[in-house]
From TrEMBL:
Keyword list, A-Z: Chloroplast, Membrane, Plastid, Transit peptide, Transmembrane, Transmembrane helix, Transport
Superkingdom: Eukaryota
InterPro entries hit by this protein: EmrE-like, Sugar_P_trans_dom, Tpt_PEP_transl, TPT_transporter
Listed name of the protein: Sugar phosphate transporter domain-containing protein
Transmembrane regions listed in the UniProt entry: 103-123, 135-155, 167-183, 222-241, 247-266, 278-297, 377-394
Cell compartment(s), UniProt: Plastid, Chloroplast membrane
Single GO MF descriptor: organophosphate ester transmembrane transporter activity
Amino acid sequence: MESRVLSGSTTIHGLPRLRRLPTTLSAAACTPIVGAVGDGGNLVWGRQLRPAILLEAPPVNLLSPVIKRETLLRPCHAAASSPAEGSDSAGEAKVGFLEKYPALVTGFFFFMWYFLNVIFNILNKKIYNYFPYPYFVSVVHLFVGVVYCLVSWAVGLPKRAPIDSNLLKLLIPVAICHAIGHITSNVSFAAVAVSFTHTIKALEPFFNAAASQFILGQQIPLSLWLSLAPVVIGVSMASLTELSFNWLGFISAMISNISFTYRSIYSKKAMTDMDSTNLYAYISIVALIVCIPPAVILEGPTLVKTGLGDAVAKVGLKKFISDLFWVGMFYHLYNQIATNTLERVAPLTHAVGNVLKRVFVIGFSILAFGNKITTQTGIGTVIAIAGVATYSYIKAQMEEEKRKGKTA
């Protein structure tokens, strides 16, 4: 028996039963398994939901190079009492790139969020220049995203989270507001310059504050209201002299602000343990169903008669289909990356990131399309963005202080 053990042909299971497993395990063996069990909780759809009893980890075998996984019925923190012994037997735990350079990874997420957003806005506006049908294009955005989600679920990246009727009832109002906000944003993009639409959408914090005060009953401090004054003044200045101004674009952008405000309100009521990727996928599916009827009713007859034929005649069938596919992909990916990015950062970083994103989109859209803006429009846009930055900074500080007060 002993010779077989020393030759490595028998694992620890071949030893006499009088021998016992080591009383200590290495620290590496106690490292939480990503996506399985960590800190005493089962990670289901990215959330810790319930305590774990069984912890799966490989036992240390000093006599054989063969290591088999065993199910241990003792907690990991109790087994890691001797780090020195563990480091001798199993070596130091390897630190992955994501854990070693978290700031670099977060920076990459921000870059991809801005990059995809800018490309989406530019490509979207180029499509409207030869195919001015925002309801149909809105449906294409969501349709491509839904197909992407279904394919991802089919291959298990990510695994589809189950949904029941109760959760669906909570998500339907969020999805309806998302659909209305998305359609009206596209109507505005088709009617006026991209930079002007984003300037109008800078008013969204004002609508959020008003809804919080008068609908949710939350008390908004005077300092927060005062910080919104430059936003209103700046948007007013930019609107009065904007060369591409028309009422359809202006009113559509305002409706979009209101819709996204209500989306935020309903999202707070629909808090769930489901991860953001699956949550956004379900919202996209419901929003697509909501967007199809108005597209068919308002643009369907014209599309069949002249719209599709004119677009193909101008750019060709291959480019037309390619543009619609890629604008849908960029729309879905930038929204998904934005959600994943904002989950990685603190509220203040979140606020600054949102403001900088709007600055990037406005700046690059002006360069891409060569839009001429008056001096007053430029000054008004800068004032509005500065107001949004001030508001976001104050609000983020308030949320951080509230969080620290709860944990104290």
